[in-house]
Amino acid sequence: VSSIMVRLRNVSASRSDLDSRDPGAEGVVGCAQLGRLAIGGFVVLRNDFLITQVLVRERWRRCGVGTGLVTELLHRLPRDGLDRGRQTWYAWAFAESASSASSFLEASGGEPQGNIWQVLLRDPLPALGMLISSFYPFELVLGEKVFRFRA
User: Fold this and answer.
1) Which of 118, 89, 94 minimizes the C-alpha distance to 104?
2) Which long-range contacts (CB under 8 A, 24 or more apart) does 51-58 make?
3) Sequence-separated (6 or more) residues with CB below 8 Å from residue 56
4) Residues in contact with 115: Cβ distance below 8 Å, sequence separation at least 6, in sequence order
């Protein structure tokens, strides 16, 4: 895995894509995407981001590529204490409760937060952002497990 190169593409001011490339002939072996969390596209949450996808070719799964991509995305978040308010920065992700994606997110350092309704009671703005910003709001409503990563 150490021979894999990671390339960042800033797709827009609010989204970055990471590609893992095999220096050999295979090309891209995985990619991950981090976006800003927003409520309706009008209110962008300053401290909260959304990991929208982590994809790894089947041959490269369980080799550390996905975890490396998540780690690299988290390194792109602002660091604690670098601003005057000593803000904490989070990346959020969600997956089916009993899936390998859920196990992966937890193994990659995600803190399980329960379902979207539990998050809504504790952190209403990020929860609303996830419901509005995600491509799969119905899955969230139907019981997807939410994870929070700290920068």
Assistant:
1) 94
2) 51/91, 51/92, 51/93, 51/149, 52/134, 52/135, 54/30, 54/93, 54/104, 55/30, 55/31, 56/20, 56/29, 56/30, 57/26, 57/28, 57/29, 57/30
3) 20, 29, 30, 65, 66, 69
4) 140, 143, 144, 145, 146
Find how far residue 140's CA is from the centre of its chain. 15
Cα 49 to Cα 38, 126, 144, distances in angstroms = 9, 9, 18
pTM score, two decimals? 0.79
| Residue 44 structure tokens | 């962008």
Angstrom distances, CA of residue 138 to CA of 16, 40, 108, 133 = 25, 16, 25, 12
pLDDT in single tens digits along all 151 residues of the chain: 444 445 545 444 444 455 566 566 466 778 888 888 877 666 778 888 989 888 888 888 888 888 988 988 888 887 655 555 667 889 999 888 878 888 999 999 999 999 989 999 999 989 888 887 766 666 777 778 999 998 7
